[in-house]
Amino acid sequence: MSQVDMKEAITAGATSLGIEFGSTRIKAVLINKRFETIASGSYEWENQLKDGFWTYDLETIIDGMQTAYRKMKQSIQEQYGITLQTVGSIGFSAMMHGYIALDNSGELLVPFRTWRNATTGAAARELTELFQFNIPERWSIAHLYQAILNEETHVPQLSSITTLAGYIHWRMTGNHAIGIGDASGMFPIEETSHNYHPSMIKQFNEHVSGKSYPWKVEDLLPKVYRAGEEAGTLTAEGAKLLDPDGDLQTGIPLCPPEGDAGTGMVATNSVRKRTGNISVGTSVFAMIVLEKELSTVYPEIDMVTTPDGSPVGMVHANNCSSDINAWLGLFLEFSEAMGYGSDKEKLFGVLFNKALEADPDGGGLLSYGYYSGENITGMEKGRPLFVRSPESKFNLANFMRTHLFTAFGALRIGMDILTNEQVQIDSVLAHGGLFKTPLVGQRIVSAALNVPVAVMSTAGEGGAWGMALLASYMINKDAEESLDIFLEQKVFHDVEGEEVTPDDTDVHGFEIFLERYRQGLAIEQAAIDHLLENGGN
């Protein structure tokens, strides 16, 4: 679109806004009806470990959202000379799972507990046995039940529980709503009704009936919406919260809030059956849209849904890029100390490409980027670890390849289950910052999973763009037009992508590395047992 057309679209509100609360960044993206990004803004943040829980404080959540929106708004002012006053539709997304517990006045009863917490093992195991359905530690219902097991004093005061996306949506609209994809990380979803599984709701209520709580679990959970439905409108309070300047108009329709897994599927056009996507960030997860249910319950596989309700097998590893970023930060410090400057993008590119010069297996080196517990490998806590033998080939290329390989070690262990279940995958698309360096990340992931991996030209747009697409779908879809058709025919029909097929040498090298990874888990466990947090202070 021309500058004039963009300006007219902004003024007329022929736009859609997506805001996503990721693990390291909050991003706001405004798109037009051609799904092109008009402007964006972001806010960097980090989770904190407080009183034994990974969390983000409420003040930072709101400040980060306002900052991302303000930067986007400023960009529009600078580019087009317009003060943003309205948009056609809005959608909020965030990290899935976790636990936001509210009382009847909407106040937080305990600090936000994120997906990263590995504190609900007992609850997850007991609920999995009760439901005969895998309940991961990250899920909201596991957090609730663990609070019950711990006899936490806030539980009788509960009025509602939700996710971060659901919380922000409620602050914007006054409606306790949740998109079905995000809801499927709170409590199991029944595929036919597209709602919380009724028999499991009943089982849970009966299971805790002896506690005599003044609530039923179905009263605590937000209402489930599917993609394309309207889930509320922007109130005066919500508009002021998002835009403290007071320029944003009220009454704007909001689509259902979604989790980052759902926006990742949308952003990579992976909502059709037999498609999959891999999202890489602080954590890494692979989402495969299934044709049929798995034959049994697997604790490594989350059963969730697409934003329109199709069943998905999700392999989620809690740790991925944090340790890589830490090491690259160390190299950046060295570069600055030597007077070579601080070109972060160049440094990343050089170091990532060194991995392609390495020995196929990484030269016998081993690392674990476990900043937190890892459910797939059974680690309750995290200890980032690098280890080698005297015979290892310790050079920069092998060092980088090892850290890239290990980022996908736990994911591969989980994906092997789907392979053994004969799950058919026609295509896998990848997105996340790791893929900004051309081909390197694709080649590593393709070797790790032994499948072709594609990255589309839109991959860098990320989950906020995917959320904006869901907001656009709500107001721009044709009657009865399904989400997969909307994406296939309107959004991605002429989007280019590049696919990397597995290299036999890389695949063999990763298999050797993975065996080392499995054998070395005892070393990681020993580090957890003997290396105290904060150095023992």
Automatic annotation (TrEMBL):
<feature type="domain" description="Carbohydrate kinase FGGY C-terminal">
    <location>
        <begin position="277"/>
        <end position="474"/>
    </location>
</feature>
<keyword id="KW-0808">Transferase</keyword>
<comment type="similarity">
    <text>Belongs to the FGGY kinase family.</text>
</comment>
<dbReference type="InterPro" id="IPR018485">
    <property type="entry name" value="FGGY_C"/>
</dbReference>
<dbReference type="GO" id="GO:0005975">
    <property type="term" value="P:carbohydrate metabolic process"/>
</dbReference>
<dbReference type="Pfam" id="PF02782">
    <property type="entry name" value="FGGY_C"/>
</dbReference>
<dbReference type="Pfam" id="PF00370">
    <property type="entry name" value="FGGY_N"/>
</dbReference>
<protein>
    <submittedName>
        <fullName>ATPase</fullName>
    </submittedName>
</protein>
<dbReference type="InterPro" id="IPR050406">
    <property type="entry name" value="FGGY_Carb_Kinase"/>
</dbReference>
<dbReference type="GO" id="GO:0016301">
    <property type="term" value="F:kinase activity"/>
</dbReference>
<feature type="domain" description="Carbohydrate kinase FGGY N-terminal">
    <location>
        <begin position="17"/>
        <end position="242"/>
    </location>
</feature>
<dbReference type="InterPro" id="IPR018484">
    <property type="entry name" value="FGGY_N"/>
</dbReference>
<dbReference type="InterPro" id="IPR043129">
    <property type="entry name" value="ATPase_NBD"/>
</dbReference>
<keyword id="KW-0418">Kinase</keyword>
